[in-house]
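Give me the fold.
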Amino acid sequence: MKKITMFEMPDDERGVSPVIGVILMVAITVILAAVIASFVLGFGGLGQRERTGRRRHQPDQRRERQRDVDQRRERRRAERHDEQRRRRIRGR
């Protein structure tokens, strides 16, 4: 039986051809670079935001938020008004 060292391969076992190995490594590198470039340039993934970082429907959301704030403010004003009326009525 022949002793196999680290740098010798037995004749009966075949590995991947060096050409095929290089082609596979280049293909993996190209695909990885394309995926990274698509995320960096904004072509892939998130979709909710534009390149500027603003949401596409921001004016609508801003209007809804302002409407909610206005409604809460109006409710508080009405509650204060009612409380003042009750105090005046009790004071008479």
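The radius of gyration is 35 Å.
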